[in-house]
User: Which sequence fits this backbone?
């Protein structure tokens, strides 16, 4: 099993609200996983171990209690345990589709982002990617130079 999730693909949303998850991402996602609002305009799919790690980090963080409550409420109130169907498709519920501007859309971007998968409105994903300046990325890479990148 691969450790990291990567790449992006545009996939059709069918009439029932299902979207195919690329085959190279399915193994890391596991048989059951958590779907939640992401920390942005996307749906996040977390393998069970990554979801638990995220919640542990929130719970054990030095954040003020009120901030922990808000973050927990945001993440957990939209969370559902899910699985893919036999064809590798995910049924996205209407509540999540509405929150991330997927209602009425015919396609979405499935993006493997290191430890989770993100499902984006295609136009919003392209805008987000286009807003990143090359110089900003170079500066960030310079900050990471000390870790061998």
Assistant:
């Amino acid at each position: 099993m691969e450790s990291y999730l990567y790449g992006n693909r545009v996939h059709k949303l069918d009439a029932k609200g299902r979207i195919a998850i690329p085959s190279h991402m399915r193994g890391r996602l596991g048989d059951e996983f958590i779907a939640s609002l992401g920390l942005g305009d996307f749906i996040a799919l977390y393998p069970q171990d990554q979801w638990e790690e995220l919640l542990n980090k929130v719970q054990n963080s030095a954040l003020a209690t009120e901030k922990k409550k808000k973050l927990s409420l945001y993440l957990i109130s939209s969370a559902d345990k899910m699985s893919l169907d036999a064809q590798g498709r995910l049924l996205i519920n209407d509540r999540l589709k509405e929150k991330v501007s997927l209602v009425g859309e015919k396609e979405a971007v499935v993006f493997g982002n290191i430890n989770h998968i993100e499902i984006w409105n295609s136009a919003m994903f392209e805008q987000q990617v286009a807003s990143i300046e090359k110089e900003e990325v170079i500066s960030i890479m310079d900050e990471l130079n000390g870790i061998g990148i």
